[in-house]
Write a structure and sequence with these properties.
Layout (H helix, E strand, L loop, with lengths): L15 E6 L14 E6 L14 E2 L109 E2 L17 E2 L39
Parallel strand pairs: 1-2, 2-3, 4-5
């Protein structure tokens, strides 16, 4: 299908398509509920307020698109490209973003509870105020990500993540940070009940961090500043 640029509401709900190319379209408040598509070019589109509830769009291209306030809940977006996209305030609960490209994506204030982001690339992403409660973030490299204020990671799986050289003022209570790299990190958030077994905290500043009931089994605390 050739690229079909649209500038109005469309309804692709419950459709099963081989491909869909809508690059640069204005699709505010459009309906993609339960859409299944093999390949989609949604780059540089305006999807504000759109509904992608339970959509299956693997290897989709959302680069540079505006999905502010959209509903992607329960959607599956394996290996999709959201580079430089805006998902601020979007509803992303239970979404599957495994291996997705979220570099420099604006996720400020997004609702990512129980989302699966395993293997996703969040380099340079803005996560300020995002809710990642119970999310799967296993093995992610957060280098350059904005993690400074108000993020909820409580109960999340952050096993093996790279958070080195970052400043963490977030809620990490009861999350899994086993084998994580927290070296030279400024920890000022809530880490109560957190699993930090075998994590690397060497050179970290933990002054002001709440580590009550945290698991510090075999944690590297060399040069920690208390």
């Amino acid at each position: 299908m050739k690229n079909k640029k649209l500038d109005s509401y469309i309804d692709y709900s419950n459709q099963n398509l081989r491909e869909l190319k809508l690059k640069g379209s204005d699709l505010r408040n459009s309906n993609f509920k339960c859409l299944k598509v093999g390949y989609a070019d949604f780059s540089f589109c305006d999807f504000r307020g759109a509904n992608f509830w339970f959509a299956v769009i693997e290897n989709g291209n959302f680069e540079g698109s505006n999905l502010e306030g959209s509903n992607l809940q329960y959607g599956r977006f394996w290996s999709s490209n959201f580079k430089n996209a805006t998902l601020a305030g979007a509803i992303l609960r239970y979404c599957d973003f495994r291996l997705a490209d979220l570099r420099k994506c604006n996720l400020e204030g997004s609702k990512l509870q129980r989302a699966n982001l395993r293997g996703a690339n969040l380099e340079g992403a803005n996560l300020r105020g995002a809710n990642l409660e119970g999310a799967n973030l296993m093995g992610i490299d957060f280098s350059g990500a904005n993690l400074l204020v108000g993020i909820n990671f409580s109960g999340a799986n952050l096993m093996g993540v790279n958070l080195s050289n970052t400043s963490l003022q977030a809620d990490f209570s009861n999350c899994n940070l086993a084998f994580a790299d927290l070296s030279k990190t400024n920890l000022q958030g809530n880490f109560s009940g957190c699993n930090l077994a075998f994590a690397n905290l060497s050179g970290a500043n933990i002054e002001g961090a709440n580590l009550e009931a945290a698991n510090l089994l075999c944690t590297n605390l060399d040069g920690v500043k208390k």
